[in-house]
């Protein structure tokens, strides 16, 4: 029986809140806090089963978060606001001695650069305080990292090649929309790509490496190598990896829109004067694009995300593919939001459950692959994200 504070009332926050409310034996009291309290109230009303309290919070302000934590006294804070809030929320957790969990690593607002260094630097302070921070507990990072840990534990003596494959085979019927916060999403995919090879990073131009990969129940999709944050921690935690890459599917229509957005300057993150006011073009663009949390209603098709791994077991070469397919429609019917928010929110809830029930323990800052994957893998199916595996099939990569 534990109290949990969820920060962020977007698509992911809705799923986390809904799933926590479904499991009162672990989450005995729930508070949902965000910048716009009316969004918390809607979520509490629609999926809270009468069990969610709400509060207004600017999580950039450490003192405000400290005050809310002191008032509500949670055992864990689940941060599903934006990556910019990671450090101020971690500061508030340190000050109050409360555990922390998130789904995306810190990014400074004025630079599209995401890496774990800032959050890993909190390790000693969290350890001294006797609390834990769980980093990257969504789907990717999150489940993909746990799949890798599971493969390392049960299927390989040494892993050599890791390819994380992320396909959204869904159709939301809009000309252009992103599946999670457009500002964060566009910052991520317009950067140069990067993958791990023989102990070093190889940099690529955005969308330079392309391959058609086959996804279960979806078929062939153009997939592109891009940098994704779990590569940083997985290559550190599994030094036997000779190569580690992340692939994501994009349709031609999406890429054309993206190219135009970049060419006309709408993806810029530096301030521009408009009628005497400083505006950031990408922040403005977010306001006019469809809200990812509202895409669910007519969203058809599935996501398919997994890990394709090659390595050695008992002296022989082995390949292993582990994945989940998630239906947008089923996610919407259950929580009122689409599959990408669902595949992120469910693991965040289950990670929180792992911490609060003592299945994952530690003092300091950890990436999810550092914990025992088994209790998580045993339960993730029952919460809506069952997994499949194939041994010694053709990995295509
Ligand atoms: P949304 O933009 O839909 O929601 C973000 C929420 O955070 C909004 O409610 C927003 O408030 C709130 N927020 C923003 N700034 C503050 C602040 N200063 N104080 C308090 N609340 C604030 O994003 P998503 O739900 O799509 O994504 C949430 C997180 O999940 C992101 O960090 C994203 O990167 C991560 N993610 C991780 C994935 C994974 O697999 N690991 C996949 C997809 C997303 P307001 O409503 O007022 O704008």
TrEMBL record:
Domain Saccharopine dehydrogenase-like C-terminal residue range list: 138-384
Q: Which InterPro entries match?
A: NAD(P)-bd_dom_sf, Sacchrp_dh-like_C, Sacchrp_dh_NADP-bd
Q: Which domain of life is it from?
A: Bacteria
Tell me where in this chain the Saccharopine dehydrogenase NADP binding domain is found.
4-134
The name of this protein is Saccharopine dehydrogenase family protein
Question: Which species expresses this protein natively?
Answer: Draconibacterium aestuarii
